[in-house]
Amino acid sequence: MTILTASDAHIRQAADSLRNGGLVAFPTETVYGLGANACDEHAVANIYAAKNRPQFNPLISHYASSEAVFADIGSNPTARMLASHFWPGPMTLVLDRPTDCQISTLASAGQNSVAVRVPAHRIALKLLSACGFPVVAPSANPSGKISPSCAEHVARAMADKIDIILDGGWCERGLESTVIDCRDEDHIMLLRPGPVTKSEIEAIIERPVILPAHDSNMPASPGQLASHYAPDARLIMDVTTPPDGAVYISFGVAKTDNPLHLSLSETGNLHEAAANLFNCLHQADATGCDLIAVSPIPQTGLGRAINDRLKRAAAPR
Ligand code: TXA
Ligand code: MG
Q: Which atom from ligand 1 is nearest to the alpha carbon of 114?
């Protein structure tokens, strides 16, 4: 594995590696993705193996533009409307899988749908343009573990599994894309909360977005299993007074003299907290502590996505 700065020459090298079936980790605005050629069944199988990911959990295919997505997959008016507002950006659309689809069937995990996204990141877009084929990219972490928001997080967890890591510094958003099932225009469903919020989507489509009925054994989005994003330490939420020995991750002004204290955002800013979340979890875990205690996070706007990740990190394993 080599970590490369994201020069134009290195991006071309990464694209060649993907074309030849390699696995390349690259930055996006949400988290680092572990990329493979979406049309290469063998490379896609290697992604599942590298992450130890259950094969019932499908992958997102990344494209350089909305036009490229819709030329491959087709669309409906709602998908086009959402794409024109939120792409490039942290939104994934689930659409019907066309019969002549070039994306590996493994990437759809046997379902008759595909998930697609155009990331808003200079390096990711250059890489995707250089490839000219869609690139599947789950978050570049072992299945069930904390997602990576910098190249070092990827290297630490996945070094022996990947050919190249393109280093693009920190991910600006810090939480994975919002996943929207857009197949039935009368029932637009929020499968995974993320940086594009429910109310932002509703403002564009001018109708309510449906939350799938909660059943963690049969999730509408198979990746939304109860335990995910799990640090090695146990995690508890909604803590205002952390127990002795716990690493405390606070939000807003924290009255604590806990020596093991990390802050998501001292000013109580949800965007800043989202961007810092996974790094704080990585840092807390690196102390070797047994317990991570997290402040209450308001369940509004981006707070919904942050609490979704924390709930899964806290879930019994
Ligand atoms: O921000 C992101 O989306 C990042 C970056 C790298 O783009 N990628 C990412 O991928 O988070 P991953 O594999 O960690 O999460 C993909 C989510 C999973 O919850 C998966 O079940 C869901 O998208 N998904 C993928 N294809 C789907 C499909 N056809 N139907 C329903 N859900 C799908
Ligand atoms: Mg993931």
A: 29
Q: Which ligand 1 atom is nearest residue 109's CA?
A: 29
pLDDT digits (tens, 9 = 90+) for 268-298: 999 999 999 999 999 999 999 999 999 999 9
What are the residues whose beta carbon lies below 5 Å from ligand 2 (ion)?
A: 139
Burial (CB count <10 Å: 0-12, 13-18, 19+), residue 2: exposed
33 lines ligand 1 (CB under 6 A): yes
- Gyration radius from the chain CA atoms: 19
155 and 282 Cβ atoms separated by less than 8 Å: no
CA atoms of 314 and 233, how far apart (whole Å): 10
CA 53 remoteness from chain centre:
14
For 140-167, write each residue's pLDDT tens digit: 999 999 999 999 999 999 999 999 999 9
Q: How far is the CA of 55 from the centre of ligand 2 (A)?
A: 14
223 Cβ below 6 A of ligand 1: yes
Q: Give kind and range of the element (H or E) at residue 293.
A: strand 291-294
Long-range contacts, stretch 7-10, CB < 8 angstroms, 24+ apart: 8/126, 10/166
Per the listing, tokens 């704080």 go with: 280
Measured CA to CA, the distance from residue 292 to residue 247 in angstroms comes to 5
Crossing angle of helices 122-131/8-19, nearest 10°?
A: 50
